[in-house]
Amino acid sequence: MKADLIAQLQGLEEEGTVAVQEAPPESLEGLRVELLGRKGRLTGILRHVVQLAPEDRPVVGAEANRVKQALSELLDARAAEAGPAEALGPLEDLTLPGRRRWRGGLHPVTQTVNEICDIFRDLGFSRVSGPEAETLDYNFTKLNIPLDHPAADMHDTFFLNEGVVLRTHTSPVQARTMERCAPPVRVVVPGMCYRRDAWDASHAPAFEQIEGLAVDEGISFVDFRATIDEFVRRFFGPATRTRFRPSYFPFTEPSAEVDVSCQICGGSGCSACKGTGWMEIMGAGMVHPKVFANVGYDPERYTGFAFGMGPARITMLRHRIPDIRLLYENDMRFLEQFA
Ligand code: DAH
What we know:
Blueprint lengths: L1 H21 L5 H9 L4 H6 L10 H26 L1 H4 L20 H15 L3 E2 L5 E3 H4 L10 H5 L4 E3 L2 E3 L5 H9 L4 E10 L11 E11 L4 H16 L5 E8 L2 E10 L16 E10 L1 H7 L7 E7 L1 H9 L12 H4 L4
Parallel strand pairs: 1-5
Antiparallel strand pairs: 2-4, 3-4, 5-6, 6-10, 7-8, 8-9, 9-10
Helix pairs in contact: 1-4, 2-4, 6-12, 9-11
The structure holds 3,4-dihydroxyphenylalanine.
């Protein structure tokens, strides 16, 4: 019995060796299954091991392992020779379902930025940009923020070189635009800004802003309000109300913060608006005469308004996103909801 099994194993080795050597590459996998698979010929022989005397079993087992190893190495060697594609056997399986291609999409904040800029384009504003590495002069001084003034501390600034910072807001592009263009001017400026804020649910150290600026002869507070009201109705919907609250910015006088009626409760008060019925969407105001003087515009002749808003915050209000970090972690499970 023992000798018989050993002879069968050796027979399998010889036959198998010839078969593997002669097989075309595409039938190698089939041959592996036939010889060494769970229901293959080697397993068939080993089924009889249980009938052996206990002391004979290890001998036959060792021979079986040797044969298996030899054939397996030979199969690997032939498969490697044939190259990876053929080693896998025929590649076309017409019953496989089609593969879904991965489709990219715009980030939810980019979608908000584009929608806001498109609305202002319809109102006559061009879209421009400015540098993210900015001088202290443009980031603060030209905007009527003296460097030793507490307003400069409002921005926790990243310094790059002597006198050069990562801009803390998009407002410096107001000054750059006015120095470059004679009035009338109407621009919106989307871009990244940087502040040394720690990450938390409502702060990111790098974030988007959209600046707006309109300057001409005879622009009044009424034009300012009408423009912002029109933007709010188009962006948030015709039923949305707008409220201007007095505020302070060094580069505008008067200054305001603009609130819209809460997008969640419609104004009756809920947890999202902390019971006030309002949500803040931007800082704004009439351009300060000193800013005009700093960029070479005649403050006696020209007036204008400016505003600055955070599209990440607006995206959060709009989609009820509870934590700003979700917008910057690039988790596909989150982002795919906005594709
Ligand atoms: N630059 C301000 C900030 O970063 C936002 C701002 C407020 C911009 C009022 C303006 C404005 O143009 O008029 O907080």
